[in-house]
Amino acid sequence: MAERFTKSMARNMYMGGSLFFILIFVGLTMDTVRQMPGRDNRENLTEAVAHGKKLWEDNNCVGCHSLLGEGAYFAPELGNVFQRRGGEAGFKAFFKGWMNAQPLGIPGRRAMPQFNLSDEDLDALADFLEYASGINTNGWPPNIEG
Amino acid sequence: MKYESQAVAKPYFIFALVLFVGQILFGLVLGTQYIIGDFLFPEIPFNVARMVHTNLLIVWLLFGFMGAAYYMIPEEAETELHSPKLAWALFWIFAAAGTLTIVGYLAVPYATLAEITGNDLWPTMGREFLEMPTITKVGIVVVCLGFLYNIGMTVLKGRKTVINLVLITGLLGLALMFLFSFYNPTNLALDKYFWWYVVHLWVEGTWELIMASILAYVLIKVTGVDREVIEKWLYVIIAMALISGILGTGHHFFWIGAPEYWLWLGSIFSAIEPIPFFMMTLFAFNMVNRRRREHPNRAATLWALGCAVMAFLGAGVWGFLHTLAPINYYTHGTQLTAAHAHMAFYGAYVMIVLTIVSYAMPIMRGRPNGNSNKAQVVEMWGFWLMTIAMVFITLFLTGAGVLQIWLQRLPESGEALSFMATQDQIVIFYWLRLIAGLFFMAGLVVYLVSFFVGGDEPQLEKA
After folding, report:
1. Closest-CA residue to A99 (of A70, A65, A132, A133)
2. By C-alpha distance, which of A105, A141, A20, A39 is closest to B409?
3. B370 torsion bin: left (phi>0), alpha (psi -120 to 50), beta (else)
4. Left if phi > 0, otherwise alpha if psi is -120 to 50, otherwise beta: which for B248?
5. B111-148 pLDDT, tens per residue?
6. pTM for the whole structure
């Protein structure tokens, strides 16, 4: 590097640059949190949804599935599974049937464990997935397959 | 070794390498499960193996960073470590907590682990990479506090070099950002938003400071280039890392509920994220070309150069490939993400830890000029086998990802293949990836064997 560019200039660039962008980032985070009520579907955050999210976490669902594209890529995306598997009319019935049928036991096929959830738990988990599908994701995913 | 207390780095490095082996073994299990879906089911379901694979990676890198700090900081500060005893105590606590957590993952169903570790009291589990029980997270914080106190006191009483200050800033930031792992709101969008405070601001923020300072340290040692020059580079690199990386967090906010302006901010700032990595490559090669001596530990120099190049390819190039919002719209959460993650973690963080191990371990084992030429040749075989295998793992996963996007993401609803049908179509790439993974394991074995190769210590030569 050129001699005109001194070490103290480099240090100032580091200190000033990072401080500046940390402040911008904090400001944008505050703005994001302020805008979230219009986007994150919090009006549908019921007790059941909260219970469903806890079940989602306690059973490490994200260890195979993705949710809004984040997680593992071993099993289907579940952010829009509500729409993909029946929506308002049929999702809950499909979901319970599916969960109770696991593991399918097809040789060589990726296998999902049986989590032995109660009917009430399955309702809550379905409610959580329905709530997640209502978050404004800027139009992601591109199609119903997730 | 100039200060005796530096030797406390040794158990950290050794344990890191043991965990590394575990990580790769479980990687091979996962690679097989991608092909034979019910492999080891129900004993080791995919989610369990994946948790072990990713958590072992994180923990062994943390062991590596801590070992690096214990080795570097006393030498840079020109004083003994504040308390080697504390460093040893924390080693055992961290090793025990880490081992217990992994055993917990494997021994009982995850829901049971959550229950017996009190996840109901303060739920933090079940989120990607932060799967460890809340009590383990508390343990990590305690270990980090003790560690930071120990190295902080050492720096305070000694010489304050730029390398030490940057390393400590990075480690402090690492500990600070980890605190966000305790925040887990019911609101999924907010949960995800602040989850990235840990994950992104670790790997694309604070960890880059740690990486750059270790690289700078090793380059000073192996090239003998003037400290002033190296420190100037270091400042510019970390300046660019934070200037691009902090707002670059926005590339994770595209599709999780955050406002639309993140599409622009995330795209623009993450597009410049490759720059600090490119500068690290220029830095490493420049310093080695301007070297004032021929350091007999050529393996360490190779790791330093390789790390800079692979970090640029994996984090920089493969990151840029899918970071722009209009592209990420189709690639988000596909095997392309996995491709990027593998090469980025290997290139940036695995290789930087192996760089400092390669430099420091021989010295701690009483070979100030590095291992024998014979041992170095074996180590370099390990380097090339692992690195080339990782290039192929990345290329095969990229192939899988591109085909997945083509079949599952690009067509309209109704015409697109389902996730599972797509997976069947891309299985050839998973076969190839598994073969490359076996080569990686072979490389790791060769690398480990190099520690047991004897021979005469190389002699110093004048440049």
Report:
1. A65
2. A141
3. left
4. alpha
5. 999 999 999 999 999 999 999 999 999 999 999 999 99
6. 0.97
Contacts of B419 (CB under 8 A, 6+ apart): A75, A76, A77, A145, A146, B408
Prior bond of B42 cis (ω within 30°) = yes
| Residue A108 with chain B: CB contacts under 8 Å | 36-38
Contact B329, B410 (CB under 8 A): no
Within 10 angstroms of residue A89's Cβ, the number of other Cβ atoms is 8
CB contact under 8 A, B337 and A73: yes
Give residues 99 to 138 of A whose Cβ lies within 8 Å of B: 103, 107-111, 113, 115, 131-132, 135-138
On whether any CB of chain A is under 8 Å from the CB of B349, the answer is: no
Encode burial over B314-339: b for 16+ CB neighbours within 10 A, e otherwise.
Answer: bbbebbbbbbbbeebbbbbbbbbbbb
Q: Check: CB of residue B372 under 8 Å from CB of residue B454.
A: yes
User: Which of B230, B236, B431 is the best residue to mutate to test the A interface, defined by the most A CB atoms within 10 Å of its own CB?
Assistant: B236
**B455: region left, alpha or beta (phi > 0 left; psi from -120 to 50 alpha):** left
Of B281, B278, B248, B280, the closest CA to residue B266 belongs to B248
CA A40 to chain B, closest CA, distance in angstroms equals 6
DSSP annotation string for B9-62: HHHHHHHHHHHHHHHHHHHHHHHHHTTSTTTTTTTS-HHHHHHHHHHHHHHHHH
Residue A19 at interface with chain B, using a CB cutoff of 8 Å = no
Q: Is B289 helix (H, G, I), strand (E, B) or coil?
A: helix
A58 and B115 within 8 Å at the Cβ level: the answer is yes
ipTM score assigned to the predicted complex: 0.97
- Preferred mutation among A70, A116, A133, A136 to probe B, highest tally of B CBs within 10 A: A70
User: What is the radius of gyration, based on Cα positions, of chain B?
Assistant: 22
Strand partners of residue A77: A66
How buried is B224 (Cβ within 10 angstroms: 0-12 exposed, 13-18 middle, 19+ buried)? middle
Among chain A residues, CA nearest to B335:
A73
User: Are the Cβ atoms of A58 and B114 closer than 8 angstroms?
Assistant: yes
Structure tokens at A119: 């009917």
Compute the distance between CA of residue B463 and CA of residue B461 in angstroms, rounded to an integer: 6
Is the minimum CB–CB distance between A142 and chain B shorter than 8 Å? yes
Report H helices in chain A.
7-35, 47-58, 81-84, 87-101, 119-133
Percent of chain B whose pLDDT exceeds 70: 99
Low-confidence ranges of chain A (pLDDT < 70): 1-2
B230 at A interface, C-beta within 8 A: no
Q: What are phi and psi of B437, to 5 degrees?
A: -65, -40
Contact B171, B210 (CB under 8 A): yes
**Per-residue pLDDT, B461:** 62
- pLDDT at B191 > cutoff 80: yes
